[in-house]
Each structure stands twice: as C-alpha cells, then as structure tokens.
Amino acid sequence: MMIEMSFKGGLVAVLVYGLILPLALRIFSRSAPLLVFCAGGLAIHVLATVVLAIYMPGCPYWHGAALFWFGFMAYLYGFNTLYKSMSIDMIARLAASPGGRLSQEEICNIVEGHFVARTRLLVDSRYVDVAAGVYLPTVSGQRLASRIRRAQCIFGITVSGLYSSW
User: Is the residue at 163 inside a domain?
Assistant: First the structure.
C-alpha cells in the first residue's frame, strides 16, 4: 500500500511538472531553458516529497522519486529534440575557432553538413520529395511539420535566433 502511494505521488508530481513547465518556460523566457527545467524539477520534487511526508508518514521515498526523475528525463529529452541542438554545435565551434570569431560564410560552411544530413534523412523518411532540385513536403511531412509547430508552441519556442535573449 505504501509503495503504491509512493509511485502515485511520483506520477502525480511528474504530471504536475509536465503541466507547469510550459508555463514556466514562457514566464522565464529570458532564462536559459535548462535552468528553468532543473529549477522547476527540483522545486516540484521537493514539494511532492514534503507533501507525501506530511500526509503519508512512512511512505517510501525512492519509488516515487525514481518515477518522477524518469519522467523528468523523458520530458527533458523530448524538449531538447524540439530545441536548437544545431545552435549548440555552432556556438561550440565558434568558441573553439582561432580568435573566437568566424565570418557568416564560415559559419554557414560549418552547419552545411547538418543541413545536408537532415535533408537526406527527410527524403529517406519520405517526409520530403525532391523534384528538379526542389524540395517539397509530402502529406506525411506536412502532418509532421504541423505536429512539431504545435509542440513548439506548447513549449513557447517561437524564435529561431541564436540565444538572442541571453
């Protein structure tokens, strides 16, 4: 019974976190998203632990904690899939370049490989067709784009700049 309550507490905590996080990302849009993720996760986890300790004394900690942090990591990976992983590569390469600077043409050359690989993946996955050197989304590609736009909207990802708010 108590182990079951621990699991339920962890599940409720991760669901609350999942509902609150998109709002927190919008409210704290000028902060690094990873900081919002971690601070929000820690705050919800501590709150859930305290609530369980008060209302269910003797409830084991680890079962609910494991479920919560598993959900936290799944949510984080999902968000990062939608976020700008290519931007991280670009800024890392820029920082490692001689003098810490590159021209726009040099940056474009760095990321060209990313675009070529992604385009090939889209074609291979049948989300995009190529005709006479022009790329066109397929019906399934249009559906995927629509789902991605909705998910980005939920998470408040609306800008495409390179960390313009930092």
Answer: no
